[in-house]
Model the fold of this input.
Amino acid sequence: MKQLINRFLKTKPYPTPALPDNTRVYCIGDIHGRHDLLVKLLSQIKRDAAGFSGRVLMIYLGDYIDRGMQSREVIEELLQNVQPGIEYVYLRGNHEQTMLDFLREESVGRSWFTYGGQTTLASYNACDAKIPTKREDFITIQQRLLKNLPRSHFQFLNNTLFSYSLGSYFFVHAGINPDLSLSRQKPENMLWIRNEFVSEKKPYEKIIVHGHTITDEPELLPNRIGIDTGAYASGILTCLVLQGDQQRIIQTQSANSPPRSLAAKA
Done:
């Protein structure tokens, strides 16, 4: 009993939502090749931000590519649609990491094809509809991608960050290892972790804002906020808006969005 009481007394409180004064954050979840939804959402954000004269940050949580058919267009949009007076933060998702790995090692292609890489390769005219089976096929595709990938796109992908911290929030693609401090997190966990993170109820040093794990609705919890609403399949792309101690959601969707019932995927 004494141990239980001591454990209870040592329990830390959840972080209080807070950003620096006169600062607003627009944080966008997993896009996955849905350029159409990204354009709509950016238009909504532009209207929402009109008249706000403080510091504005746009934070993207990664997974810009794969699954949807417009990966190349998404990257180009992110490169070209840069508004004056706005700070941009681009985080890396596990899908960007896999693409970068494939550019260095063709054997990665086998796993990449299992979770949406073929649509990205098609958007760069690096492969056709045929599923490759031989090492030589993957080498050919790798060489085509190296040839067709604009240097600016490679630099964008290669310069993405694993995490970003501001106020009482810690932004990351997939989540964190619940047993490690934020300063000791490893890229592998920040890119890939899922069940052991999303099932954890304890408070962290900061509120973790993440994507990667698909849910029908955004999850605004005391210890974490998940905003991957499966845009590539649901037609719903989500943006979390933070200012002071306030949290709100902006969403857009395609005209004929199917019913939302999406299981977690890589």
In short: The first helix runs from residue 2 to 10. Residues 258-264 have pLDDT under 50 and may be disordered.
